Amino acid sequence: MRLSSNAPPLLAPVTAPPAASPVLAPLAAVAGAFTLAQLLLVPPGMGLGWDESVYVSQVSPHAPAAFFSAPRARGVPLLVAPVAAWSSSTELLRVYLALLSGTGLYLGLRVWRGLFPLRVLALAGALFATLWVTLFYGPQAMPNYWVAIGALVTAGCFLQAKAQATTPPYSHRPTPLWGVAAGTALMAWMRPTDAVWVSLPLLLLLFGARGWRQPRLVAAMAAGLGTGAGAWVIEAYVRYGGLVRRLDDASRVQGGLGWHIAVNDQLRSLVGRTLCRPCTGELPHVAIYAWWFALPVLAAVGAAVAVRARRRTPTLLLLACATTAALPYLFFIGYAAPRFLLPAYALLAIPLADGLLSLVTGPGGAWRPVAGTLVALALVAHLGVQYAVLKRTVDRTTAWHRDWDRVAADLRRLGVRPPCLLTGDYAIPIAFYAGCASAAVRGNNANITRDGILRTAERVPVATLVAADGTTPAYARSWPAHEVAGFRLHVAPRER
Question: Could you tell me the pTM of the whole model?
Answer without folding.
Answer: 0.93
